[in-house]
Design goal:
The complex is a heterotrimer, with one copy of chain A (267 residues) and two copies of chain B (213 residues).
Chain A (H helix, E strand, L loop, with lengths): L1 H8 L3 H11 L7 H11 L10 H17 L6 H18 L11 H26 L18 E9 L2 H12 L1 H4 L12 H12 L6 E2 L12 H20 L3 E5 L6 E5 L9
Antiparallel strand pairs in A: 2-4, 3-4
Helix pairs in contact in A: 1-6, 3-4, 3-6, 4-5, 5-6, 9-10
Chain B lengths: L18 H14 L4 E2 H7 L6 H11 L5 E6 L2 E6 L19 H13 L2 E2 H8 L5 H9 L3 E3 L11 E4 L1 H6 L11 H6 L21 H7 L1
Antiparallel strand pairs in B: 1-3, 2-3, 4-6, 5-6
Helix pairs in contact in B: 1-3, 4-6
Classes of the chains: A mainly alpha (267), B alpha+beta (213).
Protein name (chains B, C): Condensin subunit ScpB
Keywords (chains B, C): Cell cycle, Cell division, Chromosome partition, Cytoplasm
Protein name (chain A): Segregation and condensation protein A
């Protein structure tokens, strides 16, 4: 069979065997229809004039032989065998009166059509693969001239986007997500800077609260932050030996003064 | 003609370059590209008022019988070496990927029956189509997804690509070998098994493709 | 000539193909090769008895004045598109891109507050304005320099252009809606927080905030 040969030419034997092993289990047939097609060729007639009855018998004989050889047949083959056995009985027996469904002749004709169509597709595939092919028989341009892609980027925006952008800026404070607001935070670093500049003049005990920066003494939130920072800074300065701290009793005002004596004479 | 070079900077805005110049332009564009170029793209790159299709017709005639031919691939055009000179090109030959028998048959069924569903391919081959077969053909860009079939389940369909046409030197799927005979013999029809429910609805097959254009 | 295809299998061993055929061969070889091909190499690939150099001379003449030329590159030959058609080798694609958030905010501030200095823009946005953002807007010709502000340092101011008004379909920058209008038009879904209402009072825009141009 010429078209079969050319079909096979395009595959190496090992690949073909591997592919077939995956699909079928008997003699390299690709399913029952493929097996039927092969069997039909033994009748040596045009597929249109094939005896479906004879073909059914051939197929059933094949399946019997496979069973005798204890070849495990895929379900597909067995389904087809059952269907062909049914078809065979229908072809042989006269139709029962009042029987529903398609006639045996119609079923047989359809099977013949399927075989003819598969055969035609095989032939078409072979013809297709035998055509002159790009990269084998004819060739494209080998050298690729660089087609410069001039990418022009044009930026655009709509009026709505413009307006919304502006609105976003102007109303940012209303709906921005939580962010730590540093405006009301007086840091220890700030306090240290401030106190270092002032401490030299503090020869006498001075209340710590008088070191609070201007504008931080009134609003409670700011006052708390500034007080905490200033107290922490005073501890740091005391530790470094620049100042002394005293508090007469619990919760009494804290006072500080600059140290005049070296740290070594710590009392 | 060779002196009347076209200078794009001197063109008056609405005057198309002479046809001979347009022919040169189409020639240059196609020579520069290894892939087929659509008429549309040529037109876009050519000066205003050009008629790429007309220039192509002239160019095609000019290359008749030459060592390279102008061929049509779908809606695009490309220069390809004359097939009879393939023997000179061992150097350029790329190792063609080996396709399994199942892949070749599946490809042919898609080409001849497109748009076609997987169920229809299986019906024709009488065996399940492995996922790998379809994947391989998709990966080679020889097939792609077509429109979904308007039947229950809305199955996807497969059709062949321009790359497929280019590879097999076909202008369109209509030029597939023997397709006319197959159609007139009714072998491209979908004929459901008598008595079986026609769950694919009207499987129009290639006829759909032909009506479309 | 087109019918006298050369079949390598039929050649008598020592008879060279006709020159016209040799020309076709050279044409195909040069076309398909990714690199320039030397005469020597062509000769090696062509049937025995061929004269690549002579065929090449004919081929070169044939391509004179065409859209592609046969050019010599070192010791080798190649097809190249005609230099005067270089402009066809450009494919212009216009890509529309959205302005960045920084750019559109800056633009909005300029539109609402013009003439406005960079320092003022930064104050309103609350973040520094990069040089690139201003440059981009200048380049798009949506903003331009206004008069210098008569304050220390005499900073430049920015104003929007006719092109800007044109693009956004505005007759003047004064037509831009205020925050109140935006809110009543439902363009702002957030409700003002208590006490933040005076934000709008702030937004005096062009004339009040800064001196008129």
């Amino acid at each position: 069979m010429a078209e079969e040969t050319s079909l096979f030419e395009s595959t190496s034997v090992s690949e073909r065997l591997a592919a077939e092993a995956l699909i079928v289990d008997v003699d390299g047939f690709e399913g029952p229809l493929d097996l039927l097609l092969t069997l039909s060729r033994t009748q040596k007639v045009d597929l249109r004039r094939i005896s479906v009855l004879a073909l059914a018998e051939q197929y059933l004989a094949f399946v019997d032989r496979a069973k005798a050889l204890r070849i495990e047949l895929a379900a597909d083959y067995l389904v087809m065998a059952a269907w062909l056995a049914f078809l065979k009985s229908r072809l042989l027996l006269p139709p029962e009166p009042g029987e529903e469904g398609p006639s045996a002749e119609d079923m047989a004709a359809h099977l013949a059509f399927q075989l003819e169509r598969l055969s035609a597709m095989r032939e078409a595939a072979a013809q297709l693969m035998a055509r002159d092919r790009l990269g084998r028989d004819f060739f494209g341009r080998g050298f690729e001239e660089s087609v410069e892609r001039v990418r022009k980027v044009r930026y655009t925006a709509s009026l709505l986007e413009l307006i919304q952008a502006y609105a976003r800026i102007r109303t940012r404070d209303e709906f921005r997500p939580y962010a730590f607001d540093r405006r009301d935070v007086f840091t220890m670093e700030d306090a240290l800077d401030r106190m270092r500049g002032m401490i030299g003049f503090a020869g006498d005990w001075t209340e710590l609260t008088s070191y609070l920066p201007e504008g931080w003494g009134l609003e409670p939130k700011r006052r708390r932050s500034a007080t905490a920072a200033t107290f922490a800074a005073s501890l740091e300065l005391a530790k470094q030996g620049h100042i002394e701290i005293r508090q007469s009793e619990t919760f009494a005002p804290i006072a500080i003064r600059a140290r005049t004596t070296p740290r070594a004479t710590h009392e | 003609m060779s002196d009347s070079r076209y200078d794009p900077n001197e063109k008056s805005l609405f005057e198309a370059p002479p046809l001979a110049e347009q022919e040169r332009m189409v020639e240059a564009i196609l020579f520069a590209s290894p892939e087929p170029v659509s008429v549309r793209e040529m037109q876009d790159r050519m000066p205003h008022g050009s008629d790429a299709a007309e220039a192509l017709a002239y160019l095609q005639r000019r290359y008749e019988g030459r060592g390279v031919h102008l061929v049509k691939v779908g809606n695009a055009w490309a220069f390809r070496t004359a097939p009879d000179l393939g023997f000179l090109m061992q150097k350029e030959t790329v190792e063609l990927r080996k396709l399994s028998r199942a892949a070749i048959e599946t490809l042919a069924i898609i080409a001849y029956h497109q748009p076609v569903t997987r169920a229809e391919i299986e019906e024709i081959r009488g065996v399940a189509v492995s996922r790998g077969t379809i994947d391989q053909l998709l990966e080679m860009e020889w097939i792609r997804l077509g429109r979904r079939r308007m039947t229950p389940g809305r199955p996807v369909t497969f059709i062949v690509t321009e790359g497929f046409l280019d590879h097999f030197g076909l202008e369109s799927a209509r030029d597939l070998p023997g397709i006319k005979e197959l159609r007139s013999a009714g072998l491209l029809d979908n004929r459901p098994m008598p008595g079986a429910e026609d769950d694919e609805g009207d499987m129009v097959g290639q006829s759909e493709l032909f009506e479309e254009e």
